[in-house]
Design brief:
The protein has helices at residues 2-9, 14-41, 47-57, 61-64, 67-71, 77-80, 83-111, 118-126, 130-154, 162-185, 203-208. The protein is mainly alpha-helical and 209 residues long.
């Protein structure tokens, strides 16, 4: 992590590097750390809590701001922290989370060790069949994307920084499409889980770590 930080500092201003570091902290502190007890217990949380944690555990928030590198435009703090801008980031992050859950479902069903997946949570929450839960997960994905695009299209009050925001959203969209293409092409999510990069651990192994 220190090496990544130093490499970014060679080409990006401190304000951007601090954002990147903070988003990584958020992802681990409020995402991965909070989902861990549910993974150990093999019991998913409620849908409401799941959505809250999943936004951070998908570990996408730090990478969305790569758009500022590609565009060469680092947004000032008062724009970056604007509630509409932050809401767009939330929606775009969850789009990736739902992509991940849908694409990884065959692997996770085969392994039988994962509970932190939107489809499994929907099955528990609404007593749905697998087919119906998959359909609802896809609907949630589409709604998430639509809300992000609606916010961007409707709220045009960023003044002299509107073009910067537009470029940020554009490059974030390129990133989202790139992630989805990765899911379609990688061997990591092969049916049955044989393409997974490392062996699964038992719950006993996890507790001993």
């Amino acid at each position: 992590m220190a090496l990544i930080r130093d490499e970014f500092r060679a080409l990006m201003p401190d304000i951007w590097v601090e954002r990147f570091i903070y988003y990584f902290y958020q992802s681990f502190r409020y995402g991965i750390e909070l989902e861990y007890p549910y993974k150990i217990a093999q019991r998913p949380p409620s849908l409401t809590l799941f959505k809250t944690i999943r936004e951070y555990s998908v570990l996408m928030r730090p990478y969305l701001i790569f758009g500022e590198i590609e565009s060469g435009l680092v947004l000032p703090e008062h724009i970056f922290e604007h509630i509409v801008f932050q809401k767009m980031i939330s929606h775009m992050t969850l789009v990736v989370a739902w992509q991940n859950d849908i694409h990884s479902l065959p692997k996770e069903m085969a392994k039988g060790t994962e509970v932190f997946n939107l489809v499994f949570v929907l099955q528990q929450e609404y007593n749905l069949s697998l087919e119906d839960a998959c359909s609802e997960a896809l609907n949630i994905h589409h709604k998430e994307l639509k809300e992000a695009l609606t916010l961007h299209a409707e709220y045009r009050e960023f003044g002299e920084y509107q073009e910067h925001v537009d470029k940020f959203v554009y490059y974030a969209g390129v990133g989202l499409q790139g992630v989805n293409s990765f899911y379609l092409e990688t061997e990591r999510y092969k049916h049955g889980g044989e393409g997974f990069a490392w062996p699964e651990m038992s719950n006993t192994d996890k507790i001993q770590l």
